[in-house]
Structure formats: structure tokens, C-alpha cells
Design brief:
The protein contains one helix and 23 strands. It is mostly beta strands. The chain has one domain: Porin (Beta Barrel), CATH 2.40.160.10. The strands form three sheets. A 16-stranded antiparallel barrel has the order 2-5-6-7-8-9-10-12-13-14-15-19-20-21-22-23. It has a three-stranded antiparallel β-sheet with strand order 4-3-17, with no helix packed on it. It is globular. The protein starts with a helix and ends with a strand.
């Protein structure tokens, strides 16, 4: 213990020469020695260590507002804003042959409207805090952990390494209960994960938070399903992935967005989340009908170098079946630049919100191509990409369609990059007869600068 405390003090006090890691989530193997990192070894061979990382993603954005949008009461047909999409700090390490710890602290979606209980200074919190025990000392076949963790059953993008994502933002609809019955996609869980040959697995029993503790007024019981405020049940999750070529790293539960040609990855994956009596609705206005939540998916992912690493291809295709209950819909807008709406027919809500989550079926795909590593000389290279999502939800008469296209300027891989993204989203109108139909598409564009070490 003395040695551990001394090591932490040395790291914090700056006696260790600070060098920088490539990404916020340690997707590279700890034994593969990334080019640079802020790390203090606790053993001569580096198998025991403590490591710190930092990430900041700044957005400058233009958004075409949903109909009737207001900002502090003023009508706005479009908005511009600057915000911190994510700011994170990590401290984690392998402190014995079998014991691993991981913590992450930070904030999200911090723009001019960001506030918590009316106070803009109360936005940062612990995202993760877990301890993990390696059952078999010399391999990763079985690790048992517990704590506040993003370990999830639905997909790789439900537990994403946000410092390595290709598309400036993850498909947030795959963080299925985000800030409803979890804490920014994290849950208090007991889990087992590991790698059995080419099979990567994770199984978790999670203790979801009641929706009435998420800082917002809980939805009232209605003829459309919402998360119940009555009772409490556990959530069961499982995720399974088969690695045909290289195995993906297994240091933390986080999963890399793109390896930029550093690995040869071809995977098939499947995931499931189940919770009994998670939601409720009514047909007579008073009597609740309880429903189970069942979410499952199948997907394929590839991330490989081409022509001796002259290029690198990254691609993903997934199918998602999300049953939250009868006609469940949740509208959400990323770092919403508006806070009011005076158009009663606008189903989306204010700003950039749209039906992000719902009962139904979805398909999501993304593809990108990293160009030659020396394309821009010592200024790095480019990686253009495109992604598309289509969701057919029970409550909507038309599908949700989200199209993103952009380019990453990889100045120093993921450690320093500038990204430009353009997005089209579906805007819905609710008719007097209750039908919810597509009205038009709205657009937004943002420039992101990411720094991570």
C-alpha cells in the first residue's frame, strides 16, 4: 500500500515526466506500449501501473431550429453556440496481478444553456468508478467487477471509446436508457467479462436508477409507455462478439470507434438488455399496465488497413429491435441550443430535438476511409465518413431518418483532431387526429476540436 500511495503522489506532483496517450479510453493493450502516455509503472515490467488521461471536445455549431423554437422566450429560426460536448479525466490502473481499478470524472453538453438545478457550476460528476478482479492470473478469460460502469449489453456503441469515434458523435440512441434510468449511460452493476479465444463476452446485472431521480419531472401515466415510478426491478444484460482477425483490447469495457489502420478487425456481435416491468401505460386513464423492456441487436464491424496501410477502412452495420413498451417515444437533442417551443403541432420539441429513442426497429450504418498517413505531411491526414440511421417506431407514421457526413483532420491521430460534420434530421408534425407524420428535414453543422492524452 505504501508503494501505491507513493506512486500516486509522484504522478500528481509532476515528478514523473508527463507523456501523453493517444486516446481517452485505453483501447490499445497496456503491454503494446503506446507511443506516449502519462503513466507510472509499479513494477519493472510495466504489468502493474497507474495511468491518467484527459479529453476535451469543443463544438462550434449552427443549427436550423425545429418549428416554434424559442431561446429564453425569444423565437429563433436558427441558433449558433459554442459548447463542451465532453470533458473527461481518467485515473485507472493494474495495481496487482489480479486487481484493476478505473475511475472517470467529467462533464457533458456544457453550452450557454447548461445548468443543473439552475446552477451552471454543478455539471461535472463521476461517470465511472469500479473495481475488477481477474480470476485467472495470466489471461483475460474471466474478470469479475462491480461499481458504476458503462458495461452494456446492447452494442459496441452503447459502451463507446468517445476519444476514438469516427463520426464526431456516437449514435446516442444505442445508449438506450441514457439519463432516464442510468447516469449518462452508466449503471450500478455487477458484471463478468472476458475473452475465450476469439469470443469477447460481457454479462451484467444492473441496478437501474428510478426515473424520478434523473433531475426532471417524471412523465405522467398515459396511453403511451414511459418508465414507471412504481416498484423496482433489476436489469440483465449480455453482449457477445466474435473476433475473426485481431482480438480487440480488453483493458476496460470501452470499445474503440476506429483504430485508424493500427489493427485488423472483423467482428460479428449480438447484444441484449432485459428488465421486467420497466415501463407502464394505461388504456382507461387510471389503471397501469406494466410492460417488460427488451432490447436486442445484431451487427458487424470491420476496421482494417488497406494497401499496406496506405489507407484504412472503418465500417459498421447493425440492426436493433427496441421494445420499451406500447408506443414509447423519447425526444432528445444533443447539447440542445434552445429551451422553449410555441408551436403545438411540432412533435420534435425545441431546438435540435427529434424522436431519438422508441419502440420499434432501427438500422444504423457508418463507413469511413482514412487516407494516406502522410497526406498533409507533418500536419497529419484526413478521414471522410458518412453515417445513416433509419428507425421505424410504433408511434410514428413515418420513419426517423438521420444522415451525417463529415471529415476528420487527424493532426496527430485521435490525440489532436479537427472534425467537420453536417447532419440532416427528420422533423415531425402531430396532426389533430393524433397522427405523427414527417413534415420536413432540418439541418445542422458543427466544427469540433478534440485534444486528448
Amino acid at each position: 500500500m505504501k508503494k501505491i500511495l507513493k506512486s500516486i503522489f509522484t504522478l500528481v506532483s509532476g515528478c514523473v515526466t508527463p507523456v501523453f496517450a493517444q486516446e481517452i479510453t485505453p483501447s490499445t493493450s497496456e503491454t503494446s506500449k503506446p507511443k506516449s502516455e502519462m503513466r507510472y509503472n509499479l513494477s519493472p515490467d510495466g504489468s502493474k501501473y497507474i495511468k491518467a488521461t484527459f479529453l476535451n471536445q469543443v463544438w462550434a455549431r449552427w443549427n436550423e431550429s425545429n418549428p416554434g423554437t424559442t431561446v429564453n422566450g425569444e423565437p429563433k429560426s436558427h441558433t449558433t453556440d459554442v459548447g463542451l460536448r465532453r470533458t473527461r479525466m481518467q485515473l485507472y490502473g493494474q495495481i496487482s496481478d489480479r486487481t484493476f481499478f478505473y475511475t472517470q470524472f467529467g462533464l457533458n453538453n456544457f453550452n450557454f444553456l447548461a445548468q443543473n438545478a439552475g446552477n451552471r457550476k454543478l455539471s461535472a460528476f463521476f461517470h465511472d468508478a469500479l473495481g475488477e478482479y481477474k480470476v485467472l492470473k495470466n489471461n483475460d478469460k474471466l474478470k469479475i467487477g462491480a461499481g458504476l460502469t458503462i458495461t452494456s449489453g446492447l452494442s459496441r456503441f452503447s459502451q463507446p471509446s468517445i476519444g476514438t469515434i469516427m463520426t464526431t458523435d456516437v449514435p446516442v440512441f444505442l445508449q438506450a436508457t441514457v439519463d432516464q434510468t442510468d447516469e449518462f449511460a452508466r449503471k450500478l452493476s455487477v458484471y463478468a467479462r472476458g475473452q475465450l479465444g476469439k469470443l469477447d463476452y460481457r454479462i451484467a446485472i444492473s441496478d437501474p436508477f428510478p426515473i424520478q431521480t434523473n433531475g426532471q419531472t417524471a412523465p405522467v401515466l398515459s396511453n403511451n409507455a414511459s418508465f414507471t415510478t412504481f416498484g423496482h426491478t433489476k436489469q440483465y444484460q449480455g453482449f457477445f462478439m466474435y473476433n475473426f482477425l485481431d482480438k480487440e483490447p480488453h483493458t476496460t469495457p470501452y470499445m474503440t470507434g476506429t483504430y485508424l489502420g493500427d489493427k485488423k478487425i472483423v467482428n460479428l456481435e449480438s447484444g441484449i438488455i432485459y428488465q421486467k416491468n420497466a415501463t407502464w401505460y394505461t388504456t382507461d386513464g387510471t389503471t397501469p399496465i406494466y410492460q417488460d423492456m427488451l432490447l436486442w441487436s445484431v451487427a458487424a464491424f470491420t476496421d482494417v488497413p488497406l494497401q499496406n496501410n496506405k489507407y484504412a477502412l472503418s465500417a459498421y452495420l447493425g440492426y436493433f429491435n427496441t421494445d420499451y413498451g406500447h408506443n414509447y417515444i423519447r425526444n432528445n437533442g444533443i447539447m440542445n441550443p434552445a429551451n422553449g417551443n410555441n408551436n403545438p403541432g411540432n412533435f420534435n420539441g425545441p431546438g435540435n430535438t427529434y424522436p431519438m429513442f422508441g419502440t420499434g426497429e432501427s438500422v444504423y450504418a457508418q463507413v469511413g476511409l482514412r487516407l494516406a498517413p502522410d497526406l498533409l505531411g507533418d500536419q497529419g491526414t484526413l478521414m471522410p465518413y458518412v453515417s445513416y440511421r433509419q428507425s421505424g417506431y410504433e408511434r410514428l407514421d413515418d420513419p426517423v431518418k438521420i444522415l451525417d457526413g463529415g471529415v476528420n483532420w487527424l493532426i496527430n491521430k485521435h490525440q489532436s483532431k479537427v472534425s467537420l460534420n453536417y447532419q440532416l434530421r427528420t422533423v415531425f408534425n402531430q396532426q389533430t387526429d393524433g397522427a405523427v407524420i414527417r413534415k420536413h428535414d432540418a439541418s445542422s453543422a458543427w466544427l469540433q476540436y478534440q485534444v486528448s492524452f
